[in-house]
TrEMBL record:
PANTHER family with a match to the protein in the record: THREONINE SYNTHASE-LIKE 1 (PTHR43515:SF1)
Species this chain originates from: Donacobius atricapilla
Name by which UniProt lists this protein: THNS1 protein
BP-aspect Gene Ontology terms: amino acid biosynthetic process
GO cellular component: cytoplasm
Sequence similarity: Belongs to the threonine synthase family.
Membrane-crossing segments per the record: none
């Protein structure tokens, strides 16, 4: 009944073959076709002979939802409690628990599961089945495990109304809440896909969500990527790219940036509200599961990677806390990672995603261009890989030799490891970034490296799609924290103000808005390199006659904002031809102008302002004088712009993108210190004497102490010289 057609993954079964088969049946036997199609759909949704296995806490509705799903698919439904355990034991589950006790019950339950087998069915597990490893391994072999993720408060309310007092693990001194929290670790270990079940949602609605989730699980073809400089994929353009491909490839072959062909996933208001009470890592897990198909990275592996990234490497348990600054202004503190900037959020995560996605048979060299903070963050992140991964993954970080702060340079030197190096370039960031893009699109050079050394190149800059996803998480989390703190109710708007150079952080905030976070305006804050501000105000992106100005906020000393291309592709309705035209004109003529309708769309989403160095230092002094809190120079730029542009009708979240310790000379100058020692370590010791908030960064002092007289390579601003450096590093590390 369930296996009329042999199952093939949709990546193998072409749309043409499926359509042809259906057309022949429909024309020859229309009634039979309808029946066969229904059966095929059932079989296909169940992945052939596999089962849909519903898992979740007691009171999650597994039995009811299982029956509805089974009815919709016209397939057998098996409730483990009723149809397996009670049949095997010839007694009620509650009686068995009372008879043998907690530990023996789990063992007996697991043994019963090991003897059970089924195919083409919907199976509703007991709430305690996942606590028996061998039993779950057995049943998972032939099924897709769907986790019905119901908030603990909802479960407790349901169990109370059901008057259920026999829960495995519940005993004097152990509360129901403790039992439910303890079990979560087992649910997270086994599930393939998660279905958020929040609010008073009807069982029919949850059942549909289960079917949608299973369909997504089996059909990774739906989640492909395209270049910003091409249109949607067609049958003529049949080569499909998936998340694992774009993570490793970095930049599209046509010079564009990768974006998801069908856009980002949407969360309902109820689903977002279900994340208000959970931890940062749990929010990250749920959001990233929706953005990364399990065919690319399974949920259990993703959970492991997220825990590795954010579990112990951040000094604050909240990871990205939101702090009230003054009035209706709030700071999103993004500097609690190991290298003290917002780049840690992506670059503690991406190296592990990259290591999982790449083929094991090939070596990879990661190329990075940085205007400051990315350098130490990417070096630190890739140096934390497992030793076996370090042998096949190396990294070289190019930065403007004289365009970063002394402490940033010391960090980049101090973070070098056996598989990660820094190279200073006698130019500015725009040259470094453009050079990397040109290297990636130089097929002769990349082909030579592959053939001669078995080494492929990849990117870890914000041009890499995977870099943006963790940034979406912290913007969403900041909003949820304001709701949790009672500052706003869910649905109330907020503005976000971000110090912006390469537009990645700004783009991530806009993506969070698209996914359902009620962000009203994204405010772009520039320093004196205010090309973005001019563009957002006028629609003209003009680099003619502009020279990069060195400022006290070097991370946003950028004139060419790479991620702007992704945003323009989005508002231009994915018109790759237009995007290609605009950025070719920028490259060849130094400017482009948006059409009036696109400028109107842009100005609905974005606002912009800029801040001089003088105003930046004044803001640092003013905030410290009134609050005792020290802003870093980039956050101060955003603070000045927020003061000028906010209308005070809603809260504004200012992204605090780096710790002030990284820019000690400018901070000391802002605090009116007359004599400043040029030694970075002495500068930090002086700052620590102020006992300000936040305190000196936990890892920065240690890194600077290790740096000593560390060395790094310096090269001329010449493409052939950079390529020679790359080849030499490959020879030294991989050969």
């Amino acid at each position: 009944m369930f296996h009329i057609f042999q199952y093939q993954p949709l990546r193998l079964m072409t749309q043409n073959s499926l359509s042809s088969m259906c057309l022949k049946l429909m024309l020859s036997r229309p009634v039979a076709f309808a029946q066969i199609w229904k059966s095929w759909f059932s079989s296909h949704s169940l992945l052939g002979k596999k089962n849909i296995i519903l898992m979740g806490p007691p009171g999650a509705g597994k039995t009811t939802i299982g029956r509805i799903v089974g009815q919709k698919l016209d397939c057998p439904v098996i409730d483990v409690d009723d149809d397996v355990l009670e049949t095997t034991w010839n007694m009620k589950v509650s009686e068995k628990l009372q008879d043998v006790g907690y530990e023996e019950f789990l063992e007996e339950e697991g043994k019963a599961l090991l003897k059970f087998s089924a195919s083409g069915s919907v199976i509703s597990l007991s709430g305690s089945n996942p606590m028996h490893a061998a039993g779950m391994q057995h049943i998972k072999k032939n099924g897709i495990v769907v986790y019905l993720d119901v908030p603990t408060t909802v479960i407790m309310s349901r169990l109370k109304s059901m008057k259920m007092d026999r829960i495995v693990g519940l005993s004097p001194g152990i509360s129901l809440k403790d039992v439910l929290q303890f079990r979560k670790q087992f649910y997270k270990r086994w599930f393939d896909i998660r279905v958020l079940c929040v609010g008073d949602v009807e069982a029919d609605v949850v059942a549909e969500k289960v079917l949608d989730a299973v369909k997504r699980y089996q059909d990774s073809e739906l989640e492909t990527f395209i270049s910003t400089r091409s249109g949607r994929s067609t049958e003529k353009n049949s080569h499909k790219l998936f998340f694992s491909d774009v993570v490793t490839q970095g930049l599209a072959l046509d010079g564009g940036l990768f974006v998801p062909e069908r856009g980002l996933p949407k969360f309902t208001a109820e689903e977002w509200q279900g994340l208000i009470e959970v931890t940062y890592t749990e929010r990250a897990q749920v959001i990233l599961e929706r953005c990364i198909h399990p065919a690319d990275i399974p949920a259990s592996k993703l959970a492991e990677i997220i825990e590795t990234a954010y579990g112990e490497n951040f000094s604050c348990s909240k990871v990205a806390p939101v702090r009230h600054l003054t009035g209706n202004q709030f700071l999103l503190e993004l500097f609690h990672g190991p290298t003290a900037s917002f780049k840690d959020f992506a670059l503690q995560l991406v190296p592990h995603l990259f290591a999982y996605c790449i083929p094991k048979s090939c070596n990879y060299l990661i190329l990075v261009a940085t205007s400051g903070d990315t350098g130490s963050a990417v070096l630190d992140g890739f140096s934390r890989l497992h030793d076996t991964d370090k042998q096949r993954i190396a990294l070289v970080n190019f930065f403007p030799e004289d365009g970063v702060s002394p402490i940033q340079k010391s960090q980049m030197i101090g973070c070098q490891k056996e598989n990660a190096w820094s190279v200073g370039v006698k130019s500015d960031f725009d040259f470094c970034q453009t050079a990397i893009k040109q290297i990636f699109t130089n097929s002769d050079f990349t082909g030579f490296l592959t053939v001669e050394y078995g080494t492929a190149l990849a990117a870890a800059n914000s041009i890499n799609w995977a870099r943006l996803l963790p940034q979406i998480v912290y913007h969403a989390s900041a909003y949820l924290d304001l709701v949790h703190q009672g500052i706003i109710s869910f649905g109330s708007p907020v503005d976000i103000c971000i110090p912006t150079g390469n537009f990645g952080n700004m783009l991530a905030a806009f993506y969070a808005k698209m996914m359902g976070i009620p962000i009203r305006k994204c405010i772009c804050a520039s320093n004196e390199n205010n090309v973005l501000t001019d563009f957002i105000r006028t629609g003209v992106y003009d680099l003619r006659g502009r020279k990069l100005i060195s400022s006290f906020s070097p991370a946003i000393d950028i004139l060419k904002s790479s991620n702007l291309e992704r945003y323009l592709h989005l508002i231009a309705n994915e018109d790759g031809q237009l995007v290609t035209q605009l950025f070719n004109q920028l490259e060849n003529q130094g400017h482009f102008q948006l059409q009036k309708d696109l400028l109107g769309k842009l100005q609905q989403d974005l606002a912009a302002g800029w801040c001089s160095d003088e105003d930046c230092l004044a803001a640092i002094h003013s905030v410290y004088s009134t609050t005792g809190y020290i802003l870093d120079t980039h956050t101060a730029v955003a603070k000045v712009v927020a003061d000028r542009l906010q209308d005070r009708t809603c809260p504004i979240i200012i992204s605090s993108t780096a710790h002030y310790s990284k820019f000690a000379p400018a901070i000391l100058r802002a605090l009116r210190i007359a004599e400043i020692n040029q030694n970075p370590l002495s500068q930090l010791h002086l700052l620590s004497s102020y006992s300000a908030l936040p305190p000196i960064h936990w890892g920065l002092l240690e890194t600077l102490k290790k740096t000593g007289n560390g060395n790094h390579q310096v090269c001329a601003a010449d493409m052939s010289v950079l390529m020679s450096h790359i080849e030499t590093l490959i020879q030294n590390h991989f050969m």
